[in-house]
Design brief:
transferase; single chain; methyltransferase; binds S-adenosylmethionine; TRAM_dom; S-adenosyl-L-methionine; eight-stranded mixed beta sheet; 3 domains
Length: 417
């Protein structure tokens, strides 16, 4: 039965179908619809597009909202396409939220989410957001949004075969191959073999053509260390260590950070949440030996790799600590001229942002993989008298709702660029 009108007395259960007009895209890969007498119950609808009329099946019922999957499209958006992956959609692999959307439409939806987060969580008004001219750029060489993912983690099911998880579920979907994975990852036969006693299988493909298979935390095929190239340098890292997942991302993000910060010879730079030293390496030569670059990385394996990767640049120092501890313990001595921060999804948080606002820096570049976390930190920067001056966004994760932003903060009143 499909419910078209409802009054508050009708009790909904999972599996009920609702006919809905779909509204704006929201953070998290779904769109917002309302159901029932005004103002209506909020329904977060996956596999839909703004403006569509859909039949949606309820998947979760919560006190203030419902979750649902669009299972039939009554009136379709011009941005709708046939998903290139047969494993996407309701009741299938949960990895890609936007397979049913043309790439330009995916990027418009991501730009809309960034703007909405900056307004709702970041506290910016409509004029401030408009002035940023937010748009999401494709990465160079990305033609169809497929075959880009150079790190893939599969989960091993009770059958001992690896697959990908369903959305918000522990159920494992036994796929043939992942369409967004790099071709060399699609070619390796890890999905055909049983993996008894193993929880997860990760496969990493490096920009230099190496391939490593990692069962739980142990490399079982390929090199223990991978070699990557970016911004004119070579990087060695453990096969399971963090590296930008899209093959064009490291280059695009380092170029954006360097362009926004415009480092000068003699600058003191902090590269926080520095991983294997990607951003430090990209700007250290410009800063030169009259300057100083400090990388702060919490993971000892990342810090050791960063120190080795940047050993030819003696004015670069690597501190193995959390950013919070490094700021507290004065591992970051004196004032900085420039700060780069690339925190995990949770963002830097208010304490770190407040400390950075007092660092004396003339500019801060913030690389963010979650626009909501970035927006919360935008608000804290503003409270400290810093403004979000420029924002670039990159489609580092096509077919998914994820997006990478690079934001430039300067003390309020500082001249642009
Ligand atoms: C998004 S990655 C960025 C790495 C690096 N900037 C790059 O692009 O390759 C975030 C990094 O922050 C590190 N990290 C997480 N929490 C941290 C903390 N509180 N302090 C310092 N580093 C942290 C992680 O180990 C990871 O290497």
């Amino acid at each position: 039965m499909t419910l078209q009108q409802i009054d508050d007395q009708i009790e909904l259960v999972e599996g009920d179908r609702l006919e809905l007009t779909v509204g704006a895209v929201a953070h998290g890969g779904h769109c917002v619809a309302r159901f029932g007498p005004a103002p209506g119950r909020v329904v977060f609808v996956r596999h839909a597009l703004p403006g569509e009329r859909v039949i949606a099946e309820i998947t979760e019922i919560h006190r203030g909202y419902l979750r649902a999957d669009a299972i039939e499209i009554v009136v379709s958006s011009a941005d709708r396409v046939a998903p290139p992956c047969p494993w996407s959609g309701p009741d299938a692999c949960g990895g890609c939220d936007f397979q049913h959307v043309a790439l330009p439409g995916q990027r418009s939806m991501k730009a809309a989410v960034i703007k909405e987060q900056l307004t709702r969580l970041g506290g910016l008004d409509a004029d401030q957001v408009d002035a940023l001219g937010v748009r999401v750029d494709a990465l160079p060489g990305d033609i169809d949004g497929l075959g880009w993912r150079t790190r893939v983690r599969y989960t091993v099911a009770a059958s001992d075969h690896a697959g990908l998880r369903k959305h918000r579920s522990n159920e494992i979907v036994p796929i043939d191959h992942c369409r967004i994975a790099h071709p060399s990852i699609q070619a390796v036969d890890v999905l055909k073999r049983p993996w008894p006693g193993v929880d997860s299988i990760s496969v990493a493909a490096s920009s230099t053509g190496e391939l490593a298979v990692i069962a739980d935390h142990h490399v079982v095929e390929g090199p223990e260390r991978l070699t990557e190239t970016a911004s004119g340098r070579t990087w060695q890292l453990a096969a399971g260590a963090f590296w930008q997942v899209h093959p064009a991302a490291a280059e695009a993000l380092t170029a954006a950070v360097a362009a926004l910060l415009a480092p000068r010879p003699g600058d003191v730079v902090w590269d926080l949440y520095g991983g294997t030293g990607l951003f430090a390496g990209a700007i250290a030569e410009t800063v030169g030996e009259t300057g100083a670059v400090t990388v702060v990385e919490a993971d000892p394996r990342g810090a050791v790799a960063a120190a080795a990767n940047l050993a030819d640049l003696p004015w670069v120092k690597v501190v193995n600590a959390t950013v919070e501890a490094a700021l507290r313990q004065r591992a970051l001595r004196g004032a900085a001229d420039l700060v780069i921060l690339d925190p995990p999804r949770a963002g830097a948080g208010a304490r770190v942002v407040r400390a950075l606002a007092g660092s004396g820096a003339r500019a801060i570049a913030y690389v963010a993989c979650d626009p909501a976390a970035l927006a919360r930190d935008v608000r804290t920067f503003a409270e400290q008298g810093w403004e979000l001056q420029l924002l670039r966004a990159f489609d580092c994760f096509p077919m998914t709702h994820h997006v990478e932003c690079v934001a430039l903060f300067t003390p309020a009143g500082a001249p642009a660029g």
